[in-house]
Structures are given as C-alpha cells and as structure tokens.
Design goal:
The chain is α/β, with parallel strands linked by helices and 426 residues long. It has 16 helices and 19 strands.
Length: 426
C-alpha cells in the first residue's frame, strides 16, 4: 500500500522498516515493542506540539551506513581518518541550512535544541553572567533559567512575561528589565507562546543595553524555513532551532549565527559541549533541510497554521479560552478551567480516548504547576498525516465533549476511525 507524504509530496510504501528478520532474531522483545509503538501511533491522534513524523527519506538516512561513523571534529579538520564522505554529508547540511534560513553560518552537530542552547550560552557567556529570558511560568524553556537545568545553575536569569489582559509579550517590561539588569544576553522565544515574537523590537532592546540576542526558535524554525513566519536570523546574534518538530527531521538541534561568531559557536559545540557528531543524524538533517526548501513543504507549513487557527476557534466554541485569542503558528495554548477541569485532568481524559495532547501551566495560573489550568496542542503531526481544517474542527469538538464530561467510549471510537483514515507516511 502506498501513501502520499503530506509535507513532501513523495510516496512511500507503508510497512515496518524496523521489523527486519535480523532484529527479530537478535532481540524479539525490542522488535515487538517497536511494532506496538507503530500500532499505538496508528490508532491515536497526535496533538503534542513538540512531535512530528519524520519523512521516509529522513528515516532512510538515519538507518544508513553513517550510523556508526565516528567523525570527531569538523569537515576537513577531523580527528580520525576515513571521513571524506562524512565531510561531504555535513557540508551539504551546512550549505542547505545557510541557504534555507539565509544565515551566514550554521552548525548542524547539536544533538538537541537544548544542547544547541548550551552551546550558544557557552559561546557568548561566562558563568555568573546575567541573562534576560521569558520566565518559566510564562512559557520559557527549562534552558532559560530552571534551577534543575544547567542554565539556572551557571547564569543569573531574570524573567520577563506576558501581559495579563491579552497574553502578549510585555515589551515595555522587557525594556525596563534590560535597563535595570544590563544582561549579557537576551533570549527571545518560548515553548508555548502562540504568536510571533517582535524580533526587531528585541534587537533594539538588546542594542540599547549592549547585549547579545539569542532567538529560541525550536518550535517555529519550520515555519521560518517555509516563509510563513518572520525570521529571527536577520536580528539575532544566534538562533537556536530544532530539526525535529515542524522541520520533520531527526531529533536534533541547529545553530545559526553571524559570521563574526562562527568560530566561537563551533568551538562551543565541539570540543566544549559535545564529542563526535552523530553523522547519521547530520545526514538526516541534510535530507530534511532539502525537503523543507520544496514547495510541497511550504504548503504543508501553511496548512499547519491554518489548521491551528481552526483548532483554536473550535476550542473557544467548546468553552475553552485560547491564550492571546488565537495563534499565528502551529501552537495552540488554551485555558480549560472554564469547563471546571485542570490541565492534567484534561490531558488524562483526552488520552483515554486516544487524543494525545499536553497539560501546561498558564501565565498568572492559580493552579499548582503540576496540575496547570491549560493544555498545549500542535498541528504538525496531524497535518503531516493529511488532516485539514475540517478534521481539526472536529477534533476540537471531540475535546470539548470529553472535557464537558461525556463518557470516552463514543469519542474514542471516532478518534480511532480518524486516526486509521490518516495513518501517515509510514
């Protein structure tokens, strides 16, 4: 059976490429777990904002012969021999990233967006330096000052937030805090803010206090690549991106920077924070970046935004309160407390019926962080599978029914039907 990949326009044979005879002989337990994971995905609707489906071409690159190639260092400057073809793959990924994002420099080796953020900090800061970033309570990532994370232990963070009346970033507060604390770096971006940051305004504030500007674009890099979101690259000294999420590549990170910071960025990745790169991931990133430059991907990215807007409107109609009144991206964050449930209870009820989404705390949230009053959803995966505005409007209604107290049985049956009808490019 063949299916069309909704992001790339290519076709692939649906099967179980991991279910080889060799794997079954060597480790039947893992083979069975992988088969069960595939079945779980086929029967549920995936709305987690940080996940997506890698394309079949990316999966092929990940399983290719570079999977066990040790290539410590950079192209032309490796610490081991036999790296000429690995060099060629990495140079392709670098060139494609630079062209796609119009960036002077790119580093494709980080193993995650958090690893990339660590390298950005290492390139620009010293322990004890001050950083101004979105507070965790208002949507900042753990790498923006959590004491459980390296960032909160090595640097002095000050958090800015959003306005209580409209949920938008309070740029007056950002400017006032920057003038007061004179941070060495300002981080713009978050994991749950559904609107586009004003990159030019952040650049202006950073220049006023002589700070570096770091763009945390892990969630939205795919939209930037497709031209459906404003790019931070012309404004930021360093842009931190993820290559999974909307880019549909392997789990990994990407750093874009000015030419002046290129050497510092590279040395902050290797040898400071990582050893040899995972060359199969680098090859997979090269494939994903090539796919993201094609018209089919750009159409896909626009559909993720269009679908998210329909989803937000549907949740509002069902009695929830979308933060900021809607979305500019694939992200939707909504307050479920008007329906008398917490975020964690909303997540549980939906999961029982096969709708997978995430609980989250909200700005000015009276609920404990472990419970939260919100849910966070993303349209990346379902759009990759071919779902559109009609399906997302229906999904919003299903969520509303569950949170209003309806028994999960009828909803679960509809979810399973929907999932199987759009089983994805695998």
């Amino acid at each position: 059976m063949t299916v069309t990949d909704a992001a790339t326009g290519s076709t692939a044979t649906r099967g179980r490429p991991w279910a080889s005879e060799a794997l079954h002989r060597a480790d039947p337990q893992i083979a069975d777990l992988l088969a069960a994971e595939a079945e779980r995905r086929a029967e549920t609707v995936q709305l987690l904002a940080g996940e997506n489906l890698t394309s079949p071409a990316v999966m092929a690159a990940l399983a290719g012969p570079l999977i066990d190639k040790y290539a410590e260092g950079y192209p032309g400057r490796r610490h081991h021999t036999g790296c000429a073809l690995a060099d060629a793959a990495e140079l392709l990924a670098i060139d494609r990233a630079r062209e796609l994002f119009a960036a002077p420099h790119a580093n494709v080796q980080p193993r995650s967006a958090t690893s990339a953020m660590l390298a950005a900090y290492a390139a620009l800061l010293r322990p004890g330096d001050g950083v101004l970033a979105m507070s965790l309570e208002h949507g900042g990532h753990l790498s923006c000052g959590s004491r459980a994370n390296f960032s909160g232990r090595w640097f002095e963070f000050t958090g800015y937030g959003v306005r209580e009346d409209d949920g938008l970033i309070d740029l007056d507060q950002v400017r006032d805090l920057a003038r007061l604390h004179r941070p060495k770096a300002i981080v713009a971006g978050s994991i749950s803010y559904p609107r586009h940051p004003d990159w030019a305004a952040f650049r202006e504030i950073a220049d006023e206090v002589d700070a570096y500007l770091i763009a945390a674009a892990a969630q939205t890099a795919g939209l930037v690549a497709a031209g459906v979101a404003p790019s931070p690259v012309p404004y930021a000294d360093v842009t931190v991106a993820a290559t999974h999420k909307l880019l549909r590549g392997p789990r990994g990170g990407l750093l874009l920077s000015t030419a002046e910071l290129a050497e510092r960025i590279d040395r902050a990745v290797f040898p400071f924070s990582q050893g040899g790169a995972a060359m199969n991931e680098v090859a997979g990133k090269a494939v994903a970046l090539a796919e993201a430059a094609r018209p089919a991907y750009r159409a896909y990215a626009q559909r993720t935004v269009d679908g998210a807007r329909v989803l937000a409107a549907g949740l509002a109609e069902a009695g929830m309160r979308p933060l900021t009144g809607g979305t500019d991206t694939h992200l939707v964050t909504a307050d479920v407390s008007p329906l008398g449930v917490s975020g964690v209870e909303a997540e549980r009820r939906c999961a029982v019926a096969g709708l997978l989404l995430g609980k989250c705390a909200l700005p000015y949230d009276p609920a404990p962080p472990a419970e939260g009053s919100g849910i966070r959803l993303g349209t990346g995966t379902v759009t990759s599978q071919g779902m559109g505005e009609e399906e997302l409007a229906g999904i919003a209604g299903l969520i509303g029914r569950l949170l209003a107290g309806e028994a999960p049985g009828p909803v679960a049956e509809r979810v399973r039907e929907l999932a199987l009808a759009f089983a994805g490019p695998r």
